[in-house]
Structures are given as structure tokens and as C-alpha cells.
Amino acid sequence: MINAILAVTTQAIASSPTVIDIAQKTVDTSPNVSYVSTIANMIGGLLVVISLIFVLAYIVKRLNIMPNHHGVIKTVAVTSLGQREKLMVVELNGQQYFIGVTGQQISVLDKLEQPVVVDSTTFANKLKRAKEQQ
Fold it and tell me: Among 6, 21, 86, 127, which is 20 to 30 Å from 74 by CA?
């Protein structure tokens, strides 16, 4: 009886298609896909994503969702002392403070009586002056 079951099972396995046969039939029966249309779809999708990024950036800029530099606290000057340590002069409601900033804390070192004036010329202005002097 066991021999009969083994014989029937062996015949069923031998006559059934293997995974490789099914894959070959699937590959052989699939329609030919044009590589040009695939690349065109990819480039089209890329252009849509890039244009969406620019549209969203424009909307964020127009609606002022991002905070701007016209806040109450202004950074007047910064000097780095190390990897995480800085000395800063900040202005709050017209009063300037000299503070120390580390990775763990912020300490007020001095309340400045006379405001610090920092030359706010940009690199572009300095470059123009250098060209004019030549």
C-alpha cells in the first residue's frame, strides 16, 4: 500500500510543472515593454516631484510659515571657543547681553551698558569695494 502511494506521489511530482517552468512561461508570455516608455515615465515622475518641491517652497515663503530673522531676540555677534562652546552677544528689546553657550547650559556673563556695534557689510559689498580700489 505504501509502495502504491509512493508511486502515485512520484508520478504527480514528475508530471507537475516546476517553478522554473512557470517562470519561463510567464517571461515568455509577457508583452515586450519599451525601455523608452519606462525611462519617459521615470523622468516624468521625477519632474513632478521636483516641481512639487518648488511649489511647496514658494507657498512656505509666501505664507511666512518659517520663522524669519525679525524676531524679538537678535544675535549680534558669535565667537566659537570649541566644538560646542560659544560666546555670543544677543539683543533683547534693545538691551544687549553677553552670554556663554555650552552643550549643557546657557549663562549670562554680562549685561552690556554700551551696545556693541558690528560692521554688517556683506561679502558682496566688500568685493565691490575691492574691485573699485583696483
Answer: 127
**Residue where the block lists cell 509502495:** 3
List, edge to edge, every strand of the sheet that includes 73-80. 73-80, 86-92, 95-101, 106-111
Could you read off the pLDDT of 71-96 as tens digits, one per residue? 688 888 888 998 889 999 999 888 99
Write the pLDDT tens digit of every residue in 26-83.
554 445 667 888 899 999 999 999 999 999 988 887 776 655 556 688 888 888 998 8
For residue 86, give every residue at least 6 positions away whose Cβ sits within 8 Å of its Cβ, in sequence order, or none. Answer: 78, 79, 80, 100, 101
Give backbone dihedrals phi and psi of 104, rounded to 5 degrees, phi first. -105, -30
The three-point CA angle 126-89-107 to 5° equals: 150
Residues 6+ apart with CB under 8 A from 72: 92, 93
**What is the grid cell recorded at 45?**
515622475
Cell 517571461 appears where? Answer: 27
